[in-house]
Amino acid sequence: MTLGSSGIKERLNIVITGVGGQGNVTAGIIMGEAARLAGLNAVMSEIHGLAQRGGVVSVDFRIGDVYGPIIPDGQVDLVLGFELLESYRALSRARPGTTMITSTERIVPSSVNVGDAKYPDLAALRERALSRGIRIYEVDAPSIALAIGSKLSSNMIMVGAAYGAGFLPVRIDHIKDAIRLHFRESLWDVNFRAVEAGAQEIRRLASTM
Description:
Blueprint: E1 11-19, H1 24-37, E2 42-48, E3 56-64, E4 76-81, H2 84-90, E5 94-103, H3 110-113, H4 122-131, E6 135-139, H5 141-148, H6 154-164, H7 172-182, H8 188-207
Parallel strand pairs: 1-4, 4-5, 5-6
Antiparallel strand pairs: 1-3, 2-3
């Protein structure tokens, strides 16, 4: 049984979150195009903070029997996080049973760097989430991206993780075709490998839990 196979029937609700510059919106576009190629209905919306300054960027992505692009609070099936702290913040919209697949990347807010705020206790946030029945998987996307030869491919690693966990009801060929449509040819191979690596890593993590 895949991670995403229970409780998902007529619709699938995914929140993609991170900070500006991590490729969150691009990930949503690839996922949406892959869903379209698979013959599925998909809608998405983007919420930008101060993206150019490293602010939060959140994408609501929905597949199936849905029309409005905004996911109601408490109906999130998957939080796909590109930055660790923003992943935990997005759990305010989650329910017991929601899955969080997050990159381990940390981008410290400028307010922390200048001493105006303290970085939250991530261990405490994790324990609080687990006590709510949230399933948590941490993917070391930056290290995997460097290993395959492109530090900019972390977003496709996370798309691969969502696919490998069963939260994208498409074939991997649909994702690769979406990549072909969105990226120039010189970037196809590294992004294909990123998707495959992300899928492999989430399956490995699931096998240990």
